[in-house]
Amino acid sequence: MEELKSISQACFVSLPRKTKPNKPVRSTEQEIGRRYTIFRETWAYLESEVLRCQAEAHTDVLNNVMSFVQSRNPALTETSKRLDIPVAALMMGVNMSDHTAIFNLLAKKLLSSVTQMVARLHAKDCNSIAAMIQKVVTDIMQVSGSEDVEVKRNVCTMSMLAEWHDSVVIKTPGSPSKRQKKSSRGIRREDPIVVILEDFEGFKVSALQDFILICSKYLEKLPIVLIFGVSTTIMAIHNMIPQSASSCLAIETFFSMPVTEYLSQVFEKVLLEPSISFKLGHAVFQFIVDVVLFHDFSLTNLLQMMKMCMFEHFYHNPASLLCCRQEELKDVLQRMSQMEINDVLGQPSYQRYLMEQKPSSEKAAKRICRLVNDLHNHHKNSLLLLHMLYGFAKKLPSCSLGNHFREVYMTFLQAPVCETEDFSKLVKLIRVMSIDELQKRIGDALSALESQKDQLETPTNVADLKTHLEEYCEKFKALTDDVPEAQDSNETSEPVVLDWGKLRSRSQFQEKLKNLTKTKRVSPFEALRDEFASFFAEAFGDLQPPSSMPLHEVLYYNDATALKQYFTPSPRTVLHAALTRPQTVLRCECCRNTGSCEVSASLPDLSISYKLHLESGKLINLYDMMQSFKSVKSGETALSAEEEKVVQAQFFRSIAELQFLGLVKPTLRKTDHVQRMTWGFC
Q: Selecting from 3.50.50.60, 3.40.800.20, 3.20.20.70, 3.40.50.300, what CATH number does the domain 59-256 have?
């Protein structure tokens, strides 16, 4: 307490300040629960759209395979004319992780409209011919819902399947009950038996050869059609199967859409769709494109990466509560507490926005609503402009804006488009284009805008741009019709203004007189072309990246570093971090206060042994290391005989785990030593 000064010597009472009421504790679980609800809805919609795009990309090839099965069905031909097994070789590509989803679609289509007898074989389940036959028999009987024959492993043969097929399909007409039972199963006489070998290259050659020969022997009794899922080329079939087996096959090849094409469709049609509020920043978008389109070509991996991005965004960013559909924004804002609004106002982009703006009496919630709506509208507006720019500049030589729309979009995410070197090159190319080329490219830009008209509403500025482009197109067309007249009558001559300066010789004067005779002739087309180039540069100069917008953190996720730790980690670095700081992996309280170089008894046994092995040289004395391990586990407490045996067992198990991880290995130089396989402290 400060010393109280007074004229009189008296005693004064200093009352304490009034206690302020405690601030309400934020309901973190409730806030995260609301964000989880938005995350779940957004992810469900995104996943369904991606899978729908995948199904549409493979619709044509799957329909062709179904038509092949129906047209080449052995049941439609006489028994004596069944010579070869019809085989549909489906070229799937190297994206093995996506094949299961495509074959699920194919099996579903076959079961719904072609046949109920469909069997699917995987190489991992069919190591022998017996396993293949068993899988075929059980799948066909279970799919058809048959209860006439009990399926047993020791009786699963092709002859059993042939007898079952005859008993189910070939019925006597005088038995109404059997006819009714047959119709309930949906098995008809002309239904084929379809066997799908999904990963053809993974099957053993001997088992595959025997299976084909057996199917060929039973072709007169069973209408078998085979479908091979091939990841490489058609030559893989001929290289794996000997001539004795391949001569029994009538192969027709079907090619699915190249994986790069339908992945590009997923990027352009789904991930950039304005109805999906969650969006990717430049660094994350570039990383996902590099991994998916240039490394593994996997749609499954793309979905996993997108889900992790969305999870990180909604879990770590409190402002992601506003990452909802645009029409739900006002309702979400009304339900937000003051603390949640303060979290949004604390975003770095919003703080920069406040410093640049003049003081305003606008309420915070209303301002937030306006800014987030501006973000949504900016994305829609930019997509239309980028589609027009891509339509104008695609397949243009010496211009690297990109051969795909996603490349133009990545340029837009990174920096203002008008400031990029590629855009400057494009404007320079416009100034030297022919009139036919300009008309064609303006038409392509307008067509690109029309193709997006059904999906996106055209804002006022884009509509004005469209009107101006149409006007320029008409002007160029009018010049094309009047080219001879324009060249004869509309050429203008403008004398060049000369600076005489100081003429010191007759030769200089003669040179100046020659320049006087020269004129600069500008045709109407050149003047109009320069005017269009200036208009083009100005029209697309408003394309600013989302990172320049306030509150862009609400919708855009751009933490590529966290994503790389999950999907492209360095194994040695990750292993070292997990063993030196196990609390980051285990999330336990006992290891939280332990440093990376500190050895504590609360650490897992493997972590203790790893830290002890880092302190050793090239050769590690196991006895000395065990004594150190024992001292860490027991501390200053003496161990009983039973406890010491337990500690020894824990130590040797941890050493075995270190050897399994490749960190140590036995050595013949000393029997009680192991050799360290790492260097330094990692």
A: 3.40.50.300
